[in-house]
């Protein structure tokens, strides 16, 4: 029951009680209108006080509710700001970790490399090339090898297709126009790795003898062979996903998942040494070293 209704009923009860008590005393004490009026006035005053107190309490409660609502809205705003700050902090921490990984590789690499950032992709759902922020002015030339760092080790990303003064276009290994001389790192069988034209579809390694099927295991690493190729020897390309021996083909067809995740690619390194000068790349503890190459020259990201 609401406070105002309750106090009104109380007032009516007090007045009725005063009249009743006056009626009980009629037989013993002469009826006195002033006493009756006084009793009624006392009841009315008490009722009015109770009503005033109820109304005052109602206004106080409304004010308190308004203050609580305002405080609630302020807290919600602070909570949203905190969430935004936390998300931004996590984003910055991830970016710093990636930069440290890139810079750590640049410091360890013994081959001459130029670091670069991916600044554009070809305008299509499955881009067949991407652009980096380094060009002729930075020592970049067509057909140079492009690698990316994946979990602390390098993986073949592609080759430089064209160069301008300050930018270069890179042809990735998944492009249908990409052909790389490859080698199974464990069994040492060689073949030709071709792109599928789709970054989400495995590469295909051709010309591996059918007799090598039992020597190939799932997740075996495929690396560059360096034979008749612009790519240095020993760069990881990807891992074996599936081996097919088609009845009408004299060789195996091996599906290879690229080591580089092109949908997340942000930074790359361009190897400025030519493989034709006796350059051979291999990894030691997750870093790239060269044999027969020039001293390392690097630029900052």
TrEMBL record:
Residues 277-290 have a biased composition (Polar residues). Keywords: Cell shape, Coiled coil. Pfam families: MreC. The lineage of its organism: Bacteria, Pseudomonadati, Spirochaetota, Spirochaetia, Spirochaetales. GO terms for biological process: regulation of cell shape. It comes from Alkalispirochaeta americana. InterPro entries: Cell/Rod_1, Cell/Rod_MreC_2, MreC, MreC_beta-barrel_core. PANTHER family: CELL SHAPE-DETERMINING PROTEIN MREC. Gene3D superfamilies: Rod shape-determining protein MreC, domain 1, Rod shape-determining protein MreC, domain 2. Residues 65-109 form a coiled coil. Transmembrane segments: none annotated. Residues 118-271 form the Rod shape-determining protein MreC beta-barrel core domain. Residues 277-301 are annotated as: Disordered. Belongs to the MreC family. This is Cell shape-determining protein MreC. It comes from the Bacteria.
């Amino acid at each position: 029951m609401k406070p105002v209704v309750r106090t009104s009923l109380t007032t009516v009860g007090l007045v009725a009680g005063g009249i009743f008590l006056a009626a009980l005393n009629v037989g013993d004490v002469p009826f006195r209108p002033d006493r009756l009026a006084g009793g009624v006035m006392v009841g009315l005053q008490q009722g009015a006080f109770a009503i005033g107190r109820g109304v005052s309490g109602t206004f106080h409660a409304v004010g308190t509710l308004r203050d609580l609502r305002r405080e609630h809205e302020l807290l919600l705003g602070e909570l949203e700001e905190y969430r935004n700050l936390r998300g931004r902090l996590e984003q910055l921490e991830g970016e710093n970790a990636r930069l440290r990984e890139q810079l750590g590789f640049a410091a360890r690499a013994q081959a001459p490399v130029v670091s670069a950032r991916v600044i554009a992709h070809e305008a299509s759902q499955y881009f067949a090339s991407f652009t980096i922020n380094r060009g002729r002015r930075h020592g970049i030339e067509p057909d140079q090898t492009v690698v990316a760092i994946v979990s602390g080790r390098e993986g073949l990303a592609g080759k430089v297709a064209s160069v301008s003064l300050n930018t270069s276009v890179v042809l990735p290994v998944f492009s249908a126009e990409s052909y790389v001389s490859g080698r199974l790192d464990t069994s040492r069988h060689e073949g030709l790795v071709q792109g599928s034209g789709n970054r989400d579809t495995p590469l295909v390694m051709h010309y591996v003898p059918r007799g090598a099927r039992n020597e190939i295991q799932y997740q075996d690493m495929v690396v560059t062979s360096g034979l008749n190729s612009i790519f240095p020897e020993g760069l990881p390309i990807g891992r074996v996903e599936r081996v097919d021996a088609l009845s009408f083909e004299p060789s195996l067809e091996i599906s290879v998942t690229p080591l580089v995740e092109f949908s997340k690619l942000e930074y790359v390194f361009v190897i400025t040494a030519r493989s034709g000068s006796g350059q051979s790349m291999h990894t030691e503890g997750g870093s790239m070293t060269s044999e027969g190459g020039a001293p390392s020259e690097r630029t900052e990201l």
